[in-house]
């Protein structure tokens, strides 16, 4: 039976449980007769090879072929040759990807931490463009829950298309323990049902409000923002200056949105080598002024975009995910899960630069092996 976490992950796993034990809870899709390679061993091998910088089944197969007998034995693959590319491709296409994502998400939850006594989680989706099928032109779209503080994925679900991301996000939220957590979402997810799901589970939301909620957007835009106090922060790097100004006020009684406690205007001015751009967005949150003063609310909003540059960008650029031609069955999603896991493992062990972490573990394969076996 595949591992299936409840809505309170901490009740099912402890920090002492090893990654290999968690991988072993995922059901093997193969008939027991004739199975040559144990699933847990193949998964652990793939994660280790990914940690060493492998981006494809071919690369993982080559890494396995070069592995020593002792290394293979560490994965329970003793007295046999290493699994090749074809074996990996066929097996990964059949794995229960939901069970794998849920198990690893719960395990990562036990390895991460809160920010100012609260866990802050970003929800966003990414399409694996290179996995687009030749017939029908569909590409898998994965929605992830990303821990702001740890920079790690706490859960992932798949949908057929980006247009189905809203119900998928609610499914994913239902797998998480949201008690006292903060969930940040972009404008697509500014929905009353999503707000109710988050507050009903004991969490707070931070939504961006845009034209997809025209009435609410119009009401927020018409508030007398010029009369409200502002909090401003400035950053500068490599000729680029960013000024962020946020104004926050208790939600007016005439704005009807489930659980809303505060609304805000956030103005972002970017000066890049003399060229200036200004963006103004509106926010609505269920966190009150005590839980979310202006500085903290601005930090949560800024942190939401870390899912783009600390996860999606890394998978695209460092792992060349969009260039991958893996398309069969669950294989694209399982490969993305391995990348998510490796990114999280590197971050919680102190690597801010994922590319540098991969290069290090490629040079020191014993470090990669040790990290997977002892995590």
Summary keywords:
375 residues, alpha+beta, Transposase Inhibitor Protein From Tn5, Chain A, domain 1, nine-stranded mixed sheet, 14 helices, elongated, disordered N terminus
Broad structural category = alpha+beta
Counted beta strands? 9
Q: Nearest-angstrom radius of gyration?
A: 22 Å
- Strand share of the residues? 15-25%
Gross morphology: elongated
Which regions are unreliable across 5 or more consecutive residues at pLDDT < 50? 1-11
Which second-level CATH architecture of the largest domain applies? Answer: Alpha-Beta Complex
CATH topology of the largest domain: Transposase Inhibitor Protein From Tn5, Chain A, domain 1
Largest sheet: 9 strands, mixed
Estimate the helix proportion, in percent: 25-40%
The CATH homologous superfamily of the largest domain is termed Transposase Inhibitor Protein From Tn5, Chain A, domain 1
Q: What's the helix-strand series?
A: HHHHHHEEEHEHEHEEEEHHHHH
In DSSP terms (H or I, runs of 4 or more residues), the helix count works out at 14
Number of structurally distinct domains: 2
Query: Span from first to last CA?
Result: 24 Å
């Amino acid at each position: 039976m595949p591992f299936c976490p409840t809505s309170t992950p901490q009740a099912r796993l402890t920090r002492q449980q090893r990654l290999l034990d968690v991988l072993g809870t995922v059901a093997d899709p193969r008939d027991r007769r004739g199975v040559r390679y144990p699933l847990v061993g193949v998964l652990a091998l793939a994660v280790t090879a990914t940690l060493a910088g492998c981006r494809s089944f071919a690369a993982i197969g080559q890494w396995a072929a070069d592995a020593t007998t002792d290394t293979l034995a560490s994965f329970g693959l003793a007295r046999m040759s290493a699994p090749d590319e074809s074996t990996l491709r066929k097996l990964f296409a059949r794995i229960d990807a939901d069970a794998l994502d849920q198990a690893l998400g719960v395990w990562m939850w036990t390895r991460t931490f809160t920010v100012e006594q609260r866990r802050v989680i970003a929800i966003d989706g990414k399409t694996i463009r290179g996995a687009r099928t030749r017939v029908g032109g569909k590409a898998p779209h994965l929605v992830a829950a990303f821990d702001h503080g740890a920079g790690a994925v706490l859960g992932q679900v798949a949908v057929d298309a980006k247009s189905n991301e809203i119900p998928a996000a609610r499914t994913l939220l239902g797998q998480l323990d949201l008690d006292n957590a903060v969930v940040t979402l972009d404008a697509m997810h500014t929905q009353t049902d999503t707000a109710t799901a988050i507050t009903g589970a004991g969490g707070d939301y931070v939504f961006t409000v845009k034209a997809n909620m025209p009435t609410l957007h119009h009401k927020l835009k018409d508030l007398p923002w010029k009369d409200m106090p502002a909090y401003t922060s400035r950053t500068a790097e490599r000729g680029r200056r960013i000024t962020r100004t946020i104004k926050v006020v208790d939600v007016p009684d005439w704005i009807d949105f489930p659980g809303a406690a505060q609304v805000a205007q956030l103005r972002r001015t970017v000066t890049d080598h003399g060229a200036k751009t200004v963006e103004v967005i509106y926010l609505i949150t269920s966190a009150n002024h005590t839980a979310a003063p202006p500085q903290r609310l601005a930090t949560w909003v800024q942190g939401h975009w870390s899912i783009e540059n600390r996860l999606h960008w890394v998978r695209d650029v460092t792992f060349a995910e969009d260039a991958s031609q893996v398309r069969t069955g669950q294989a694209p999603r399982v490969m993305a899960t391995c990348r998510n896991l490796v990114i999280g493992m590197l971050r919680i062990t102190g690597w801010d630069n994922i590319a540098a972490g991969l290069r290090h573990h490629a040079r020191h394969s014993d470090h990669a092996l040790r990290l997977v076996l002892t995590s």
